[in-house]
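The data layer described in this paper is built around a simple, fixed record for each protein. Because each token names a local backbone shape, the row as a whole describes the fold. We quote a single record here, exactly as it is kept in our systems:

***
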Amino acid sequence: MHRYFTDQRHEVLRHQVREFAEREVRPRVAEMEANRSVCHDLSRLIARQGWIGATVHRAYGGMGAGHVAKTLIIEELSRVSAAMGAMVQASQLGVAKIVHFGSEEQKKTWLPAIASGDCLPTIAVTEPQSGGHVLGMATTAVRDGDDYVLNGRKIYVGNSHVGDLHGVVARTGEGSKGLSAFLVESDRPGFRVGPQQPAMGLHGFSFGELFFDNCRIPAANLLGREGDGLSVAYSSSVLYGRPNLTAVSLGIHQAVLDETTAFCAGRQRYGKPLADLGNIKLKLGRIQSRLLLSRLSAYHAVHLLDQGLPCDAELMNAKLVNVESALESARDAMDIHAACGLFTDRPVERFLRDAHHIFAPAGTSDVQLLRLGELALGRAQGEWSSRLADLLRLEPSEWPEEAGTPADLPAPTGRAEDTTATVPGQRTGPVSERSWCVRPR
């Protein structure tokens, strides 16, 4: 058993993602920072690696690798570029709604396309006037014969400008049972994406607005049943959103430590390396300690997900601990770099900016603390990890038989049956079933 709940197959995958990130992502970071615009080509290249399908069952062409594997994929990409780690986490968040609530037909149609990288999914819940108050949303979906007609607007949608399939929660009635979820293809008449607005950080990632103006979709695009919208939103946020954002924070945190220790080793003060000063060692020690605790909380939580065990509290705590710790360590790193950290020739200021973007999604730190407080008082409203345990548990049969090493990686396996991609406006055709230890393409 390897450290932090990983085995040899996880470490092979980690090696692959890290090598890909260094080769393909790092050379493009400076351009993404300079342009502050959506990086379409790199998003597609990453999707083609098959990593968006980390938790998609192999029967649908996915990796079948589970949540620990998903976490390390996001972590390793975020260590190089939090923007691209955020792109992957948002797409994998978009997977959740189909895995948890999709019909068999919807799964056969969309999951193979997502796993192959032909389709990037999103989930769209937040609105300008309601924010995190999901029940306050105003976007409507009205049944009209064999269709639904959507009207409204969503904001802060991860992958808004690269997404092919948007999971939209809209109001179909009154109260908490009056929300429903729908799959909306990006080429539907009446659908449009708002202009990308430059933000403080995560340059290269898109999180913008979606508009629905009499957007007509087939009734078959309903996820689950009418009234399941709140469940779709909450389960996706708790079981995928929190651990995914935790993984982005973890990758940023590791990058903070790597960059700061290298800076301290190479910088001279008083005739010796900066790292030899006692106060600097103390700050580095705090960063290292936070990182150790953060990684343990992150991987423990997703390990429980893979086991199908109750872990809502662990997921909340992991997001809380990782976000707050990454921010604290980034601030310590800025203190150590002093004036050097203020300039863009060093990445430490980028780490601090990017870390702030992970604070609000899937609940701010105060939200996590409130939920944990309710748990302590015995007032928790039930656990999504328990309700959907059968869909979260990583079955032994999903794991590929072959085991590789970083020097001898297994090639992709043969085709899966009945996994034809049918993405409007995208390349279609049979999707290869992958080992989840595959060579980056």
Summary: The first strand starts at residue 121 and ends at 124. Confidence is low (pLDDT under 50) at residues 403-441.
